[in-house]
Amino acid sequence: MATTDIFGAIANPTRRQILEMLRDGPRAAGEIAASFAANRPAISEHLQVLRLAGLVSEEARGRQRVYHLNAQALGALAQWLHPFEQYWGQRLDALTEALDKDK
Q1: In 10 A of CB 31, how many CB atoms?
Q2: What is d(CA 73, CA 50) in angstroms, rounded to the nearest whole number?
Q3: pLDDT 10s digits, 25-62
Q4: CB 38 within 8 A of CB 56
Q5: How far is CA 24 from CA 11, 18, 72, in A?
C-alpha cells in the first residue's frame, strides 16, 4: 500500500502539488481534495502516503482533518540533495568559464 519512503512519496506529481499547497499554511482535507480532478478517496490516499513518510501531519478539528507541512522531513531531503547541487554548480561554472574563453 503506502510507502514511508520520502523519495517514493515525492515521486508523485499530485503529492508534490499537495506539498506546494501546504507551503502556504495548513489546509483541510476537503480544501485540498477540491483542488484536484481526482476523487476524494484518491486524494486521501495521497495524504496518507505523505503522512506515513513524515512529510505532513494531520490534526483533527471537529469533523475536519487539517494537514500541516512538516518542514523537518524536507530538511533531510535537502541534506541528501546538497552534494548534487554542488556538483551541478561546479559543472555550470566550468561551462561559463569555457564559454567566456571563446569570446
Answers
A1: 13
A2: 10
A3: 999 999 999 999 999 999 999 999 999 999 999 999 99
A4: no
A5: 21, 11, 16
Give all domains of the chain, ordered by start, each with its CATH number.
6-101 (1.10.10.10)
CA distance 60 to 9: 22
Distance CA 70, CA 93 (A): 34
- Confidence band for 99, pLDDT divided at 50, 70 and 90: confident
Q: Which three cell numbers stand for residue 46?
A: 495521497
Q: What percent of the chain is modeled with pLDDT above 90?
A: 60
